[in-house]
């Protein structure tokens, strides 16, 4: 099975989100992308939906629960968020797998304020949950083989790559 085109998935997600937001309350809508892949996807979705609030970017390095095991990623990205207090936040990631990245992102998000609602959007859901977190809006679902990961490359053009990990990497 070949991997889908991210630009097609972004169009699908934008349509799904537009439909969901038609009945949305009067509070502000804020889109927040998780560095790095989620930020690329969020930028495209933000433009497609023509949102008026600034795009937010979230760097979660210090909020990861494996921070003490793996240490800092060599390229730490900082967070830059507009006001999220009482807003409907659309949190965007590229690939949802274990749920741990999203848990870390929500921890940081709530350090900035208390949103009215958080919707999770992702390009791909590979369903290897370790936490009970799943996307509200998803471009596609994909089943990975043992030791496989999906990585989004970008920013222009966005493309997926299926990566085969060695045993040591698969356990990390």
Report on this structure.
With 172 residues, this protein is of the alpha/beta class. The protein has helices spanning 6-22, 37-49, 67-70, 100-112, 167-171; strands at 29-34, 56-58, 88-96, 117-125, 137-141, 148-153, 159-164. The strands form 2 sheets. Strands 2-1-3-4-5 form a 5-stranded parallel beta sheet. Helix 1 packs across helix 2. The model is unreliable at 64-74 (pLDDT under 50).
Question: Would you kindly provide a brief summary of this structure?
Answer:
The protein is 30% helix and 26% strand.
| Uncertain segments | 64-74
Helical/strand content category: alpha/beta
Secondary structure: number of strands? 7
N-to-C SSE series? HEHEHEHEEEEH
What's the story with the biggest beta sheet?
A: 5 strands, parallel
Gyration radius from CA atoms, angstroms: 16 Å
């Amino acid at each position: 099975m070949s991997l889908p085109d991210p630009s097609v998935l972004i169009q699908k997600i934008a349509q799904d989100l537009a439909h969901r937001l038609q009945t949305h309350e009067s509070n502000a809508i804020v889109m927040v992308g998780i560095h790095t892949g989620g930020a690329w996807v969020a930028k495209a979705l933000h433009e497609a939906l023509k949102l008026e609030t600034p795009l937010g970017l979230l760097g979660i390095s210090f909020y990861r629960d494996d921070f003490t095991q793996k240490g800092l990623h060599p390229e730490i990205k900082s967070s830059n968020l507009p006001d999220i207090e009482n807003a409907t936040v659309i949190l965007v990631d590229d690939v949802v797998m274990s749920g741990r990245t999203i848990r870390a992102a929500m921890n940081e998000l709530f350090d900035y304020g208390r949103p009215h609602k958080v919707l999770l959007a992702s390009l791909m859901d590979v369903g290897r949950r370790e936490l009970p977190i799943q996307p509200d809006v998803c471009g596609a679902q994909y089943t990975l083989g043992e030791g496989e990961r999906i990585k989004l490359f970008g920013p222009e053009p966005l493309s997926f790559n299926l990566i085969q990990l060695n045993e040591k990497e698969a356990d990390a």
